[in-house]
UniProtKB/TrEMBL annotation:
Keyword Cytoplasm: yes
Assembly notes: Interacts with FTSJ1; the interaction is direct, and required for 2'-O-methylation of position 34 in substrate tRNAs. Interacts with IRS4. Interacts with STK11/LKB1.
Pfam families: WD40
Annotated function: Together with methyltransferase FTSJ1, methylates the 2'-O-ribose of nucleotides at position 34 of the tRNA anticodon loop of substrate tRNAs. Required for the correct positioning of the substrate tRNA for methylation. Required to suppress amino acid starvation-induced autophagy. Enhances the STK11/LKB1-induced cell growth suppression activity.
Primary localization: cytoplasm
Family: Belongs to the WD repeat WDR6 family.
Protein name stated in the entry: tRNA (34-2'-O)-methyltransferase regulator WDR6
GO biological-process terms attached to the record: tRNA methylation
Length: 535
């Protein structure tokens, strides 16, 4: 053999291998099918798909001429034909379960399923019927959308420029989709189904800018059951597809806090970490592969419901995602994290801002933990014990209760505007100055608050989205379905305009700017909750 993959579908075995469209697909009795490709003469697993809950025994895949993928398998004692396009069972035939000889055949005029039961050959046959059902509006997710990120824009010839977004939902999936301003249609490109609980947070890393092949970026998704997944997304134009855009997903790495527990020797003597820990927010640490720190490792900060702020390291080439540092300073659920980079003549400092349910916003210098972690990872080839993050440089009591939105933006003067929104409808903005001590050994990073502005009743409900668009312009969005622009002046925050949006239970917003032909800037935002809206 030129290439062997052991235990690809676990102990229960592989049931079929299919080649289609330049890819190889394998099915197994672990309830998954996997997409592979040949790199040189080696098999490389791109990603796994879990078609539907309960379908533990997958026997075969059928690619139909109209572009649907049918998954054939056994659910308990029924034979099931499941459609990937509509996400529903087309047939469910009682036959006594797997471990029997069977055959399925479908044509435009009829379908037939034959199987052996108790020594008898049975045949089910069905004539084709006209489809009575019409989908007026396809759903993106089965439940509320918890997070959204804009990947970038793809310009297809003959089409308007399409925005590509990633959404995460309580239905345990993440979806890569295009949203067209002209047709107002959302078209899913790929669905990521590796999570076992809700997807609460997304973060994008790497050059999401248009490359030769289109958009390329690393996507981190995290949520319930202390689970983080990492993918490489490649989006490019494809004239043959419905949206004129195609997305290639490559699964890079995953991490579960409790999966290392089973390998510990004296685990009966230790307190097990809480498997119900949820990741509430993610932020990629910028500038870690710079000239001063030439490392292939990328770092990710996470806010956790068990009261900790954690930092993970990713080595994409080795497909490793490692916990490198943590701190339980907040001692209550951490809701938001935001990492930013401070560059000055004295060098670069990696700073982190975290916010918790008591309304506090803490600022950390994580430069030395990241440098120490990089050294330890290089020495131990990607294995290490988590380091301590230490204590924050500064804590600001910004609100009286939980901080549900947070954004940091650097001003032209090299200072930082930190905006936050809370459960009580209030908005808080502070202006920070970073001073570096002359002695590097003393790790002399000092933060000073130059200015603080609070607007107590900015909204009538939780403020779940906030963005500093410019040093003098803020955007806030709330569960009260109002999107408000604020001008930041010497006297505080003044409301400029309010727009009502249609998405109930707003969970998050993402913003970006587009330079128009005349040189003027346009700001766009996407809102998610019980639906998705772009403004």
């Amino acid at each position: 053999p030129l290439s062997v993959l052991f235990g690809l579908h676990g102990k229960t075995g592989v049931t079929s291998v299919t080649c289609h469209g330049g890819y190889i697909y394998s099915t197994g009795r672990d309830g998954c099918y996997r997409q592979l490709r040949l790199q040189g003469q080696q098999l490389e697993v791109l990603r796994k798909h879990r078609p539907c809950k309960g379908l533990q025994w997958i026997e075969e895949l059928r690619f139909t001429p109209d572009g649907d993928l049918l998954v054939l398998g056994f659910h308990a004692d029924n034979f099931v034909v499941w459609s990937s396009r509509t996400g529903e069972n087309l047939h469910c035939i009682p036959c006594g379960g797997g471990h029997r000889s069977w055959s399925y055949c479908s044509s435009p005029s009829a379908e037939a399923f034959a199987f052996v039961k108790c020594g008898d050959v049975m045949l089910y046959r069905r004539e084709a019927e006209p489809c009575e059902q019409q989908v007026l509006l396809a759903s993106l997710h089965g439940r509320a959308i918890a997070c959204v990120r804009r990947l970038g824009a793809v310009g297809a010839p003959g089409h308007a420029t399409l925005n590509v977004f990633v959404t995460g939902s309580e239905d345990t999936t993440a979806c890569v989709l295009t949203l067209s301003e002209r047709s107002r249609a959302a078209v899913p490109l790929a669905r990521l189904s590796d999570h076992i609980s809700s997807v609460r947070a997304l973060a994008l890393a790497g050059p999401a800018g248009p490359g030769d092949e289109g958009l390329s970026a690393l996507l981190f998704s995290a949520g319930g059951r202390a689970q983080i997944e990492c993918y490489r997304l490649l989006c490019g134009t494809d004239p043959a597809s419905e949206s004129a855009v195609a997305c290639q997903v490559i699964h890079v790495a995953s991490h579960r806090l409790d999966e290392h527990w089973e390998q510990k020797k004296n685990r009966h003597k230790l307190v097990k970490m809480d498997p119900e820990t949820r990741y509430m927010s993610l932020s990629v640490v910028p500038g870690t592969s710079s000239e001063q720190l030439p490392t292939p490792w990328k770092f990710l900060a996470a806010a956790c419901s068990d009261g900790s702020v954690r930092v993970f390291g990713l080595l994409e080439a080795a497909q490793k995602l490692v916990l490198v540092a943590e701190s339980f300073h907040h001692q209550r659920c951490v809701l938001k994290v935001e990492a930013f980079l401070h560059t000055q003549a004295g060098g670069e400092r990696h700073l982190l801002c975290s916010a918790a349910t008591d309304g506090s916003v803490a600022f950390w210098d994580i430069t030395s933990p990241i440098a120490d972690a990089t050294d330890a990872l290089h020495r131990a080839e990607g294995e290490m014990q988590p380091l301590a993050l230490g204590t924050p440089l500064l804590t600001v009591m910004a609100h009286s209760c939980g901080v549900n939105s947070l954004h940091v933006r650097e001003t032209p003067e090299g200072q930082y505007l930190v905006a936050s929104g809370s459960d009580d409808g209030s908005i808080h903005v502070c202006l920070l100055e970073v001073a570096l001590g002359g002695d590097e050994a003393a790790a002399g990073t000092c933060l000073r608050v130059l200015e603080r502005v609070a607007r107590p009743c900015a909204h009538a409900a939780h403020v779940t989205g906030i963005r500093v668009l410019r040093p003098d312009l803020l955007l806030s969005a709330s569960v009260d379905q109002r999107l408000t622009l604020w001008r930041r002046g010497p006297g505080g925050l003044d409301a400029l305009s309010t727009t009502f949006f249609h998405v109930p239970d707003l969970a998050e917003l993402d913003c970006w700017e587009v330079a128009e032909a005349g040189g003027e800037l346009r700001y766009y935002c996407v809102l998610c909750g019980q639906g998705l809206e772009m403004l």
